Structures
1.
Amino acid sequence: MASGTARYLRYILFAFFGLAVIYFISSSSTQIPGSGTTKWPGTPMPQKPGSSAAPAAPATAGESTVTSGTTPNIPEGLPPAAHDGPRMNATFVSLARNSDIWEIARSIRQIEDRFNKKFKYDWVFLNDKPFDSTFKKVTTSLVSGTTHYGEISKEHWSFPEWIDQDKARKVREDMAQRKIIYGDSVSYRHMCRFESGFFFQHPLMKQFEWYWRVEPSIELFCDINYDTFKYMADNKKKYSFVLSLYEYVETIPTLWDSTKKFMKAHPEHIAEGNSMGFLSDDGGESYNHCHMWSNFEIGNLDWLRGQAYTDYFNTLDQDGGFFYERWGDAPVHSIAAGLLLKKEEIHFFNDIAYYHVPFTHCPTGEKTRLDLKCHCNPKDNFDWKGYSCTSRFFEINGLDKPEGYENQQD
């Protein structure tokens, strides 16, 4: 009996000791109610309303009000970067669907972080369907300028009345069998025709003079510390690019025939000192298929709205090659720029490092890459590869190629 009583007393003592240890630990740390996080000794607790504790001293000018030990990652926590002069009448423009939201969000962050946080230019989003609330909320939260959302008119996103639908369908079926990229796509053809002839006519675009086209899922690798639009205006540039290459021959078999018809009908539009040498190896008899990749372009909207470009696009549109073949907007823009502009009105942005699957433009020249905080691998640079047309652009313009370009050739 005595031994049993002693056993119970030992159990009681052990239980009491365990409770004391738990109490000691819990009294050494306190949780913020509802936060799920622990405040360790020495960190002041938030005061309840009406508390007699002395209020914190107000922050002096320029002093962060954020609690010591935390990061100032709050709205307005850091001063914004600022541009150093008046902005141009310019906008970014993106053709995107609602389903592209996270891909275009990535592109916006690239542009904002590397460039637009300094300048706060507007952004126009265009879609052949109405934008949903998620697309608008996310993009508005990311863009430092004002966002504009527009729906494309049916007239600009449909088959024109002169197109033979049966003939166009047979072309798509044939291209599908030959596995030509986007060869069987109707929507891709509408997109190419819209980007070739109508995006600059949209009511939301008519207020602007300059544009920078941005596609979903692009990447910028280097800081851009100057106003690219102002550079274009100050240097009398009207069109620009960062990547160039040869177009798929199967998609544009008669594009140059239509172009020659235009040149014969409108010799008044062909610029003196143009870039025919970029487009043709035989003085214009045939097309060498070189074009500037239009998923990146900074350009002048008044030029695109002008009579020369309008006449060129209308010639192509009437010939039907957007639907009877698969004419892309890149060769259309490039041929127009090559013929209707002087050579010096086209600019190659070596310092704008850019990626759009599957090609990369990474600035040639180590000093440029280091100065601009670039994170691209120079081995990925496409500029001097055999399938690029950028060397040709340098040659016809009498430009010196950047130091080190030889090391990036095939």
2.
Amino acid sequence: MIRINGVNKFFDDFQALTHIDLEIGRGDVVVVLGPSGSGKSTLCRTINRLETIDDGSIYIDGEKLPEEGKELARLRADVGMVFQSFNLFPHLTIKDNVTLGPTKVRKMSKSDADKLAMELLERVGIANQADKYPAQLSGGQQQRVAIARALAMKPKVMLFDEPTSALDPEMVNEVLDVMTDLAREGMTMVVVTHEMGFARKAAHRILFMADGQIVEDTDPESFFTNPQTDRAKDFLGKILH
């Protein structure tokens, strides 16, 4: 579903990503871990070209990610993204936030979009909030709206860039529960997170990054019980204790 070949990314003189080669299969749930500044979010954001790349190529479902224009917009519509901040439109109701993409981009009728929005809001557990505005919802509820909004585009891939890091601790689980359900349903997911419980429970693969490189690529059990590199051992020692 996702293929990344020889990707390098620089911010001026700083190399954020160094020769990234990666393949992610359909239905895989890949959790990206690593210390701050390791390139996790940059990697995530290159997959729908929110960050441009300096070298290499990225393919989504066999199609090369274009650099710009209508073709990029079309392919980007297949890649849902949920950010740290919820990025909801404050002047629109919850339901209207969810229907905006399907009606504007997918050209879905208003009635079909409304029906889809209510199904998705039900799925993430907040259908009863449909007529409220973002400011009337908790952070956890707003993030669940953001997930519903991304799902409304019927994406092939979902990217999550630290989706719980801006939430109060008691709101984290309600968002992780929705993500775990998505994983069980077979959604292809790339998740940048510090939530180790989610990584152990929901991931098929763990990518551990350091200094802009993928240092380990393995299953959760192997990573958490027997990390192969000193960087990973040091990271786990700090996180788990």
3.
Amino acid sequence: MDSVWDGVCPANPIEEQPTIGLIGMGAMGRMYAKHLSKAGWKKIHVCDLPGKYEGLKKEYTDVSGITVLPDGHSVSRSSDFIVYSVEAEFIERVVAQYGPSTKMNAIVAGQTSVKAPEKAAFEKHLPPDTHIVSCHSLHGPGVSPVGQPLVLIQHRAPPEALHLVENILRSFGSRYVYLSYEEHDLVTANTQAVTHAAFLSMGTAWAAMKEYPWEQGLYVGGIETAKVNITLRIYSNAWHVYAGLAILNPSAKIQIDQFAESATELFKLMLQGGAEGGEQRFRERVEWARQIVFGEDEKDGKKRTPILLSEDVLDRFSLGRTPASPAVPLPSSSTPSPTNSQNNANSHLSLLAMVDCWAHLKIQPFLHLALAATPIFRLFLGVAEHLFLSPTMLDSAIHSALYDTWHRRDDLEFVVAARGWSQCVSFGGFDLYHRRFEETRVFFEGRFEEAGVLGSEMIKAIMESEKEREARESRS
């Protein structure tokens, strides 16, 4: 590869800069275009479907450095670094169409969430003289890339090709994580599959009940705030963001299936209550999962600083408000939870199932936290950590799961939803996934704007707190 790009940066004269090509101008393609233009790169060639050419050209008329071209052939022939920002479902078809037009010695990347199909498409359709250095920003388009993990995959390329990609993307302010294609898919499954399944199931359950539970005074404040805001955040995004990872990543399928199994088995024990040793079996299973997932902290003899902000801080981002008294009558057992009348203690079945799933699959989530954690994974892991490392809160959840009945219908709907999503993924049908996602999405549509603002503020607060925590731990 020509060394002319050594040390190149946006401050170089335009004739000394590489041409950057973006094929696909969806949410992530636009995010890349925005940050590259803002950084000062002066030759950014972009395209989308041919039918969107005129509208895209009008939209970017006055945007510095960006030139809209008619199609992927134009971008491929003219660009030194090309990023395919298309859905994983369609990557093979798009690369087959435009890959043969790739400029000699160009570097090609894909911004897909699951890399196995991308790798196969690049190896099959790109000319042998091109280089492959792929990428993946592990966050959504609405999250600032600063400090977030950005995966780089040096697959078929010399070091100087990797260095050029590093130079081009450095303006994002992201943290580079170097993985292989196979490592990427395993890590993304471990950090996203179960968390996505949990929130998708929560949303589907609430839609099936046809109510916003936080408006009933039942799931408000504290860690419930995180659950609600992230659920709405996921359903406000495009369905294909989650479908590709779930359906095309074999590791993700295994995890989603185990999550549904964990939720089902725990719910069966909950229904048994204290009869015939049911409480002991339930407690033993929860404790076993706690030891597997969170026990390392105890073995090392030094405590991690918790991820989650205080529940009082999280209350600022709540869509609902805790009433002075329960909004609806809450039937309970003859041995009611001591906190039920004040905080509506519930089973936290989604969290119990998530940790139980990780334990059964021997996934150590904290190993991936420093490596390639998305903001949603980081936050939900923090919520689980908060529950499982608080003896009082965990005991309250166990007691409520076994003896309180007011949340049983909610938990039943959650289990049905989790099994439904598992079956949907196992069938491997994108159309079915799309339909299931959209049917739930419609129910929450009117709440996305408010939840989007609050959710972004909550994630920003968590990320700032995490940066401070990581800085303290690196100094100790």
